[in-house]
């Protein structure tokens, strides 16, 4: 897949060039929702080992298939979609990271269901930086208490914060949201010094996020290309005799 290899190389160069000096080395998370094993394997062969999935049920067969393939060792799976508590058991078993923890009840469930024989589940707290109604993420003022709660739970490792700013056309507004999240993480690090991950920025704004201190950017379309259209469902008709 030469086009995939070319896009990966271009993104790696852009990420390296845009990363803020204080952030150190930033990573690319390949958002693989709707993508097949063949594309994941092609990226893994190029050294891209971290993948993000939005839906637990879609991700489970991919994760299982990759784990069973001896040619795909060491893949790192991140859940980046909103997680309901009734899916926490499956998520805790299958993923290496959950980036969308936004309430104590969910953190409790992930901790309870994580196999103690496995490494701790890496956790990011999702923050609703813009206060969008109905959007996942806790409010900024709720983060310190939630961070303290998560950090005290067994089998979880609090690594940092994640946000998805509102998709507004003004780049300065998005950049301000990224700056706000970075400032929140800096304040939080005073009491949680192990925080090392700031997940923000996607295909259309990751360079803005990197300039404000992102250490992990979530890239789908810019890496894989446009998503294939959803198959149309056949219309059903009812005939009377």
Automatic annotation (TrEMBL):
N6-(pyridoxal phosphate)lysine PTM positions: 33
Start and end residues of each stretch annotated as Disordered: 222-241
Keywords: Pyridoxal phosphate
Chain ranges of the Alanine racemase N-terminal domain: 21-228
Example GO molecular function: pyridoxal phosphate binding
Coiled-coil residue windows: none
Cofactor(s) for this UniProt protein: pyridoxal 5'-phosphate
Entries under InterPro entries matching the protein: Ala_racemase_N (IPR001608), PLP-binding_barrel (IPR029066), PyrdxlP_homeostasis (IPR011078)
Family listed: Belongs to the pyridoxal phosphate-binding protein YggS/PROSC family.
Stated role: Pyridoxal 5'-phosphate (PLP)-binding protein, which is involved in PLP homeostasis.
Protein name: Pyridoxal phosphate homeostasis protein
Organism, as annotated: Coralloluteibacterium stylophorae
């Amino acid at each position: 897949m030469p086009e995939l290899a070319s896009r990966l190389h271009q993104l790696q160069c852009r990420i390296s060039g845009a990363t803020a000096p204080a952030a150190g080395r930033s990573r690319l998370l390949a958002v693989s929702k709707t993508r097949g094993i063949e594309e994941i394997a092609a990226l893994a062969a190029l050294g891209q080992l971290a993948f993000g999935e939005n839906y637990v049920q879609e991700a489970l067969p991919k994760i299982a298939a990759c784990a069973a393939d001896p040619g795909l060792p060491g893949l790192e799976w991140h859940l980046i979609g909103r997680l309901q508590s009734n899916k926490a058991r499956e998520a805790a078993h299958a993923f290496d990271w959950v980036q969308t923890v936004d309430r104590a009840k969910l953190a409790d469930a992930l901790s309870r269901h994580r196999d103690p024989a496995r490494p701790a589940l890496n956790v990011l707290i999702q923050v609703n930086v813009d206060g969008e109604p109905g959007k996942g993420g806790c409010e900024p003022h709720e983060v310190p208490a939630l961070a303290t709660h998560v950090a005290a739970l067994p089998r979880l490792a609090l690594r940092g914060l994640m946000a998805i700013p509102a998709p507004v056309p003004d780049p300065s507004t998005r950049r301000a949201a990224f700056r706000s999240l970075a400032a929140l993480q800096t304040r939080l690090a005073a009491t949680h010094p192990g925080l090392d991950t700031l997940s923000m920025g996607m295909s259309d704004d990751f360079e803005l996020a990197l300039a404000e201190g992102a250490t992990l950017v979530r890239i789908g379309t810019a890496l894989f290309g446009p998503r294939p259209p959803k198959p149309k469902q056949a219309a059903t008709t009812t005939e009377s005799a």
